[in-house]
Design goal:
By secondary structure, this protein is an alpha/beta fold. The chain is 32% helix and 24% strand. The chain is elongated, with a radius of gyration of 21 Å.
Length: 251
C-alpha cells in the first residue's frame, strides 16, 4: 500500500472541498502534487486526521475528496513532562518548538528564583504565543496533537502538578551520574517502571538551593549532561532527547 503524504490543515470536512490556503501552497507550489495523490490530512489543534485524495490541482489550489475525520494516530506516545525555568529573549520559543517536535506530553514553564524574566503578569499573552509556536512546530514535524502548556509561579507549584508515580530528573552540573545512566537505571525496574516521567531544568543561573531541595523532596534524581555548562535551551533539548531515546528503546 502506498504511504499517504501527511498534509497539515486547519479543517477537514468530509466530502469534496478545497484545502486551506497554507495547505494549498504546500501541495501546489512546494510538493507540486498531481491529481490522484493520496493524502493524510491532520490538524494538531483538533487532534484529528482524515484520508484524502486530490481531485483537481491548479496553480494555487487543490480540491480533495476527504474522508471522515478520526482521532490522530500520531499523538505523543510517552508521558514526559518538562519543567522549564523561563530564560531570556526568545529562548522559550525554542524550548516550546523543540519540546513539541520531540514529543513532550506536557510543558510546565516556571519563573525560577534566578530567572531574569517573570511570566506571571503576562500569563495569558505568553500562553497564546507558546500555543502558536507549538502548533506551527506540530504542523511542521507531523505531530498530530499538541503538548499541554502551563505557566506556574514557581518550581514548587509545578512539582505539585505531577502524578505521584512520576520518575523525575533534575539537571545539576555536580551530579555524579549522567542523565542517560539515571534513565536506564529507572527503566531497569521491570514491572515497577514508572508510567510518567519529568525533567526539571533551571534558567541561565541554574536552580537555587531551595529549588534543588524541593526537587529532592519530590524524589527527583540529580543527573548531569557532561562536564560543560550548557545554555538552558540547549540543556532542555539535549535532556529531552536523551530520555526519549531511552524510552523509545523500551518498546
Amino acid at each position: 500500500m502506498t504511504e499517504r503524504l501527511r498534509i497539515a490543515v486547519t479543517e477537514m470536512p468530509a466530502g469534496e472541498h478545497w484545502l486551506d490556503s497554507d495547505a494549498c501552497h504546500y501541495v501546489c507550489r512546494v510538493l507540486r502534487l498531481k491529481r490522484g495523490t493520496q493524502l493524510l490530512l491532520f490538524d494538531p489543534g483538533s487532534q484529528l486526521e482524515a484520508d484524502a485524495e486530490i481531485l483537481n490541482v491548479d496553480k494555487a489550489r487543490a480540491r480533495c475528496q476527504i474522508g471522515e475525520a478520526r482521532p490522530t494516530s500520531t499523538a505523543a506516545p510517552w508521558d514526559l513532562t518538562l519543567i522549564q525555568a523561563v530564560g531570556k529573549g526568545d529562548k522559550m520559543d525554542r524550548v516550546v518548538r523543540d519540546a513539541t517536535a520531540l514529543g513532550i506530553r506536557r510543558l510546565l514553564i516556571v519563573s525560577g528564583e534566578r530567572s531574569v524574566v517573570q511570566l506571571v503578569d503576562k500569563k495569558a499573552q505568553k500562553l497564546g504565543r507558546f500555543h502558536e509556536v507549538a502548533l506551527a512546530a506540530a504542523r511542521q514535524c507531523g505531530r498530530g496533537d499538541l503538548p499541554e502548556i502551563i505557566i506556574e509561579a514557581d518550581v514548587n507549584a509545578a512539582l505539585k502538578l505531577l502524578a505521584e508515580s512520576t520518575r523525575g530528573f533534575v539537571l545539576s552540573p555536580t551530579a555524579e551520574l549522567s542523565l542517560g545512566v539515571q534513565t536506564e537505571r529507572a527503566l531497569s525496574g521491570g514491572v515497577d517502571d514508572p508510567a510518567c516521567w519529568a525533567l526539571l531544568i533551571g534558567p541561565e543561573g541554574g536552580l537555587s538551593p531551595n529549588e534543588m531541595a524541593a526537587a529532592d523532596e519530590a524524589d527527583f534524581l540529580s543527573a548531569s549532561l557532561g562536564p560543560f555548562v550548557l545554555r538552558t535551551e540547549t540543556a532542555a533539548v539535549t535532556a529531552m532527547g536523551i530520555v526519549l531515546d531511552r524510552l523509545s528503546g523500551q518498546g
